[in-house]
Please model this.
Amino acid sequence: MGALRIRIVSVNVATPHLLGEENGEPVISAIAKKPVPGPMIEVGRINLKGDDQANRAVHGGPDKAVYSYPSDHWTWWEREKNFHCAPGAFGENLTLSGADETTVAIGDRFQWGDAVLEIAQPRVPCHKFILYTGRDDAGALMLTSGRCGWYFRVLTIGAAPVADASLNRVEESGGPTVRETFQAAFGRQVTAERRSQIFEARGLSDAWKKRLIAAGI
Model:
């Protein structure tokens, strides 16, 4: 894969608030993230400063500390699916440009200011994503297209730039790409043997390993 510099289009955060209702019950979420002005932001083990999750049993945690989504997908969403895109449209912390799920791998490490991040797993859309977008098909479109984005764990905490910033890959894992890892859990094109190999990838989260077991290895 070689050297890779991914431009940060926007850094986005939110705290939990009322998102809407489902079956007459309130839904609390922090998915509606908004850009922060910077110039710097603190990167912690669990969250960026100013960010949080409503239910860490499902969202967040060390292996899902920073969610990233490529703006490179915006053209597809907008032209093919009439889905309006902007920073935070997918509930991401980092809106990125210059890479997608096919160009980064599980276990790849990136420098962002003082912080070091490691790719831990792809993202799976949930019911809150559907509620947030107002599109019943939003989750299915993400699943079938594999345009899922990915989660970072934070290996080194510290201050990171917001404006004119980038992620610079400092270590390649040699592991499976995010796209292949996603397909291994949801697609039929990945063999059980290959799923077993992906299972052993350095840095792969325990949660995703459980998905691979469920898919059959």
Observations:
- The two ends are 27 Å apart (CA to CA).
- The chain has a mean pLDDT of 95.
- The chain has one domain: 5-175.
- The helical segments are 74-81, 127-133, 138-145, 178-186, 192-199, 206-215.
